[in-house]
Amino acid sequence: MATSSEENRSVATLKVVRLGIAVVLCILVYSGLWYGAAGALRDKLTAVLSGANPAAITAECDDMQVGGFPFRVGVTCSRLSVDDHFHGLSASFGAFRSAAQVYAPGHVVWELDSPGQVRSALGFSLALEWQALRSSLNAGLSGLDRTSLEATGLQVLLTTLVDGATIETTAPHAEAHLRRSGEDLDIALLSRDAVVSVRGQTSLLPPVSSSLDMTLVGKAKYLELKGDRGEGLYGSEGEIRRLVADMGGGRVVTISGPISVGDDGMLSGRLRFEIEGIAAWRDTLNAAFPEEKDSIDSAANVLKALFGGQDKGGADLRLTNGVVSLGIIPIGVLPPL
C-alpha cells in the first residue's frame, strides 16, 4: 500500500512539473511573439511617419515607446508633430497615447494632450486647447472602417496672418464620426453650445448647438488618406440627411437634400430649408447686426408671408453654381469653397 501511494504521489508531482514547464514555455513563446510584434510595429510606424503612407505626410513622435505588455499594445509620444508639404500644413500637439487589446488589434483607442497648433501656407493659423481629446478607430482586412473623435472643453483661435484678426470659438463638447459605407463616406458631426466671437469682444450671437449627418459619394478612400492630390471636396457630391442649428428659445434651422461641389468650388443642389421661431431669429439677428436691420426685417416678413403668416415653415431652395434661388427668384450668392 505504501508503494502504491508513493507511486501516485510521483505521478501527480510529474504532472504538476509538466504543467509548470508547459506554462513557462507558453509564457516565453507569448512574450517572444508580443515583443516581436511590438518591434515590427515600431519599424512600421517609423516608416509611416517618415512619409511611407498614401498621402506622403511626415510626422515626428518624440520619445516613441511601444508598450502595454502583456495584454495590450500601445504607442506613446511625449510630443506629436505632423507636416503635409503638399497642402502647406504643419501641426504640433502635446503627448500622444494609444492602446489596442492583443485579442482585438484592429480596435485602437488614443488620446492627445493639449495644446495644439496648426499653421497653413494659405495665411492662417489655429491655436487649439482642450480639456480632453479622445478617439477610437476600427480597421479590418480592407483597411480603416470607422473612426470617432470626441473633445471636451474645446477652444479654437483662428488668426489670419494678413491683418492679425482672431476669431475665437469655444464649445464644451464636440464630436466627429466617419464611417465607410461601401465606396461612400458617412459623416456625423455634433457640437453643443458653441460660441463664436472676435477675440476680446462679447459674442454677437448666443450659443448654438449644431449637428450634421451626411454622405459623400465615393470618398471612403479618405479614411486611408487616399485620393488625387489636392482634389479636396472639389468635384464631389453627396446627400445632407440632416443639418440642424439650434440657438434655443425656439430658434431652429434644418437643412436637408442632395448637394454637389463643382471643380471651381461652387455649390449646387436642391435643399429643403425649414425654420422655427422666425420672430425670435429676427430679434436675435437685429441685436447682433443692427446695421442690417432693414434687410433682416424684410427677410423675416417674406418668410412669414411665404408660410401663411406662421412663425415657422419650410421651403425648397435651389443652388446653381453658388446662386441660391427660392423658386425662380434668386435670393443670394454663396462664395466658392
From TrEMBL:
Keywords attached to this entry: Membrane, Transmembrane, Transmembrane helix
Transmembrane segments: 16-35
Official protein name in the record: DUF2125 domain-containing protein
Species of origin: Rhizobium terricola
